């Protein structure tokens, strides 16, 4: 390899590496913010709406296949402008209302710009797929400047995630037409999952009302602090200070 060819290859390699890293950094930024939310909910609130998260950056091989199908040239700026799901984050919640609560927190409290929102919960896909999709721009500071990186966020309940994961496994790499009877069964399974979501949300709401009316031993709860798996007794001086302020 001639020196000039080597330098060109090295430059291209560095540019592609930087390109892939900025998507990973964008996910790191989002996951850090969400972890902070989870910690806050755990220690300061009675209920944590976030069950778990999962993220991924498409491999370079997967990106190459996609731009080949779409006829996009191998130009990094063109790829960035046209391929919006290179970085993906999935947030799984307990209940449907949590999905919109988390959406609102992400869009109002974080330094994100929402470019697109698709609500497949209010308007499910014909096969029964339900989820809330957001395309957001995440600011990422690199050594040579600031980048706005697109990340696709999917927010769904446990039941929605269960259905979508199994649907993907059933039809993964299945290129033939699917019989209508199977599609109908798949849609019915999605409807069943949705009914379960609605029922569990109703039960959660009713239990919350019962807890409020019955009341709990608040005085005892306020004297204890739970951190991780350890429970600490609050100092009496701190409790006295709280009483004085009241």
Automatic annotation (TrEMBL):
Q: Which residues form the signal peptide?
A: none
Q: Write out the entry's keywords from A to Z.
A: Coiled coil, Kinase, Transferase
* Residue ranges occupied by any RelA/SpoT domain in the UniProt entry: 55-178
* GO biological processes: guanosine tetraphosphate biosynthetic process
Identify the domain of life.
Answer: Bacteria
Coiled-coil regions, chain positions: 20-47, 186-213
Q: Name one Pfam family in it.
A: RelA_SpoT
Q: In which pathway does it act?
A: Purine metabolism; ppGpp biosynthesis; ppGpp from GTP: step 1/2
Query: Which terms does the record give in the GO molecular function aspect?
Result: kinase activity
Q: Does the keyword Transferase apply?
A: yes
The name this protein goes by in its record: GTP pyrophosphokinase family protein
The species this protein belongs to is Paenibacillus pinisoli
